[in-house]
């Protein structure tokens, strides 16, 4: 709303200033000096008042702006009767704000497109008649049967009821190739039906669905203030003092007060005021085209200067879709081990839980009744069965608390082990395999090539698992068997700074929040990690970490070029004006041209993503880290 108000206010003031300038030029040509002076005082006075109000608001919020130079310049032109020059400055200032709002709206088009794709209605099937009725998407309840026609956007997350469906997921995951699903598969809201009409069952309300989460992140991104405005503000005080010094010296040495006005006419650094936030909005738009939502402004500048990166493991560097490859019996049979584990894992959100539950379902095993269960972060699940037995499922150290010292099972590269105990006995070990993402190693390599000096892995998994995966992707420093608190301590102590943390799970939310920049891999189900991160990758593509770092660096470079271009050109024109070779009217016209060039330069950030090809491994999970063990290969 604020951006819209600024846009229309800028339009009104620009038209007002333009009419005033046109009238002023006509009066000047007709030699109507009194009418010209009256027009100038009215138009310039209103512009000064409006600008001053905005400047005071900025000062109250702790930001020293550069509008004061424009105000001083306009006052100076009135003082020395350079009315036309003053009217040009008024048009330049108001037109600059309008152009900034217009360019920002243009730059945020990709974000707006994502917002506009949010489904508004759903076709709900009546349970008795079977007829479909259109209802607002907010009225869809869990369990409702929905009809999705060809080319329609899926309104909520749900389960496919029809035999088959082909879904275009490019708007959510970034994958350009449609995906085929069969009955029972999970479907995501915001994706589009690429085949014939099908039916699905709603599993989440609209406000809790995947696309609603992404839309919320986009709204946060659009509302954020570009940090480069603050970076430009760092130049405000020295630039203002320098400009006033040059103008004062020109007046003092020449004895002509007109020189003071002529210098300040070209000292209004609109490239600093306009081009830098436009560049950042362009960079955020470019990131959105790569399926990366930058939620708040500081993340973009932070990503451009990252010097250390910490990666989570499961679902981040690995695909997060493990499969059970073997069950190794101990004091109970393999079947009983699976039954016990599946019963307890029904109360877990860990990435290893579902494969175990699915395997038990495939084997049609009858699971024991669970009276109570609790998931212990980074360790596992403990459950109490109906017969009073205590079951634990998780990492070996968690099981050793009740059974004593264990002999760790032998694993090969990429394998992880989940230990299962009942009362004080080891029931057995379930071995799973969670392969590394195909682009993980290349991503780590690209990050190092961009000047990042420290890349580490921070995971709740045991050392052998973590070291095996780390070696495969090219990471030498591993912090394993960490808790949410120890992850925070590790990232806080990591040097050099700024530090980027990349994770995907619920246990990653705190560390993503405390890192200088946090990126959440939302993938096929955003979690608390998405809410606490500075940026969110909405596709299951770890390569986007390196991509968004590159986009951020390009964007900051463009913004810095705009800042220095504004400073150099303004100082050059001030020196020319100081020696009396640049009349106020000519200087004001030149400044308009400089402003336009600066804005066009800043809009180059809209293409910061160019040259980065669409890629993705379409794997991953939004589950937290908990337990695992793997051996080191080699």
Q: How is the secondary structure organized here?
A:
Blueprint: H1 2-29, H2 33-60, H3 67-79, H4 83-107, H5 109-116, E1 121-125, E2 132-136, E3 145-148, E4 158-160, E5 164-168, H6 170-173, E6 179-182, E7 186-187, E8 192-193, E9 198-202, H7 210-223, H8 227-233, H9 236-254, H10 257-265, H11 270-289, E10 292-294, H12 297-304, E11 308-311, E12 323-329, H13 334-345, H14 353-362, E13 370-376, E14 380-385, E15 390-394, H15 396-403, E16 415-422, E17 425-433, H16 440-449, E18 454-458, H17 463-473, E19 477-479, H18 484-493, E20 499-503, H19 509-514, E21 517-521, H20 528-532, E22 535-537, H21 544-578, H22 584-602
Parallel strand pairs: 11-18, 11-20, 18-19, 20-21, 21-22
Antiparallel strand pairs: 1-2, 1-3, 3-9, 4-7, 4-9, 5-6, 5-8, 10-22, 12-17, 13-14, 14-15, 15-16, 16-17
**Which fold name corresponds to the CATH topology of one domain?**
Rossmann fold
Largest sheet, in brief, is: 7 strands, mixed
Number of strands: 22
Q: Report the helical percentage.
A: 40-55%
The value of Rg in angstroms is: 31 Å
Number of helices: 22
Strand order of the largest sheet: 10-22-21-20-11-18-19
- The CATH architecture of one domain is 3-Layer(aba) Sandwich
Hey, roughly how much beta strand do the residues contain? 15-25%
What structural class do you assign from the helix and strand content? alpha+beta
Overall geometric form? elongated
């Amino acid at each position: 709303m604020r951006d819209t108000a600024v846009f229309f206010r800028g339009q009104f003031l620009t038209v007002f200033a333009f009419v005033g300038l046109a009238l002023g030029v006509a009066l000047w040509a007709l030699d109507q000096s009194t009418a010209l002076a009256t027009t100038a005082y009215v138009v310039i006075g209103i512009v000064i008042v409006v600008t001053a109000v905005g400047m005071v608001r900025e000062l109250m919020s702790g930001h020293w702006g550069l509008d004061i130079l424009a105000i001083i310049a306009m006052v100076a032109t009135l003082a020395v009767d350079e009315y036309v020059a003053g009217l040009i400055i008024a048009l330049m200032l108001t037109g600059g704000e309008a152009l900034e709002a217009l360019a920002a709206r243009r730059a945020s088009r990709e974000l707006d497109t994502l917002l506009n794709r949010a489904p508004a209605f759903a076709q709900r099937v009546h349970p008795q008649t079977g007829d479909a009725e259109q209802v607002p998407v907010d009225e869809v309840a869990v369990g409702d049967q929905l009809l999705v026609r060809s080319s329609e956007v899926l309104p909520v997350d749900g389960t496919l009821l029809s035999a088959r469906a082909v879904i275009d997921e490019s708007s959510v995951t970034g994958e350009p190739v449609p995906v085929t699903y069969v009955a029972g598969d999970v479907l995501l809201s915001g994706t589009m039906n690429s085949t014939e009409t099908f039916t699905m069952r709603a599993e989440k309300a609209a406000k809790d669905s995947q696309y609603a989460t992404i839309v919320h992140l986009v709204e946060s991104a659009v509302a954020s203030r570009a940090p480069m405005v603050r970076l430009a503000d760092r130049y405000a005080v020295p630039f203002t003092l320098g400009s006033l010094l040059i103008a004062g010296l020109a007046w003092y040495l020449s004895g002509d007060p007109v020189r003071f006005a002529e210098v300040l006419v070209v000292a209004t650094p609109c490239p600093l005021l306009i081009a830098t936030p436009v560049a950042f909005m362009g960079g955020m738009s470019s990131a959105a085209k790569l399926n990366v939502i930058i939620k708040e402004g500081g993340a973009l500048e932070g990503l451009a200067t990252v010097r250390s990166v910490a990666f989570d493991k499961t679902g981040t560097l690995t695909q997060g879709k493990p499969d059970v490859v073997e069950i190794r019996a101990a004091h109970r049979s393999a079947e009983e081990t699976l039954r016990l584990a599946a019963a307890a894992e029904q109360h877990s959100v860990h990435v290893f839980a579902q494969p175990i539950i699915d395997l038990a379902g495939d084997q049609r095993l009858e699971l024991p009744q669970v009276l109570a269960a609790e998931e212990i972060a980074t360790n596992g699940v403990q459950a109490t069965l109906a017969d009073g037995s205590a079951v634990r499922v998780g990492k070996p150290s968690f099981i050793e608390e009740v059974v004593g010292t264990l002999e760790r099972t032998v694993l090969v590269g990429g394998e992880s082990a989940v230990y299962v105990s009942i009362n004080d006995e080891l029931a057995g070990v379930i071995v799973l395999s969670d392969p590394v993402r195909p682009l993980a190693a290349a991503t780590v390599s690209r990050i190092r090539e961009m000047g990042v000096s420290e890349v580490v892995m921070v995971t709740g998994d045991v050392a052998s698992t973590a070291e095996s995966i780390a070696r495969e992707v090219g990471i030498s420093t591993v912090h394993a068997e960490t808790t949410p608190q120890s992850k925070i301590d590790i990232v806080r102590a990591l040097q050099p700074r700024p530090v980027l943390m990349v994770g995907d799970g619920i246990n990653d939310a705190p560390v993503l929040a405390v890192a200088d920049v946090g990126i959440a891999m939302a993938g096929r189900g955003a979690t608390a990690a998405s809410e606490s991160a500075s940026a969110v990758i909405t596709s299951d593509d770890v390569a986007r970490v390196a991509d968004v770092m590159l986009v951020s660096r390009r964007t900051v470079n463009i913004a810095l070029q705009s800042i220095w271009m504004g400073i150099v050109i303004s100082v050059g024109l001030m020196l020319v004006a100081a020696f009396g070779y640049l009349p106020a009217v000519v200087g004001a016209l030149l400044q308009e041209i400089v402003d336009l060039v600066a804005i066009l330069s800043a809009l180059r950030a809209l293409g910061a993503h160019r040259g980065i090809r669409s890629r993705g491994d379409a794997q991953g999970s939004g589950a937290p880290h908990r337990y695992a063990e793997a051996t080191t290969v080699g």
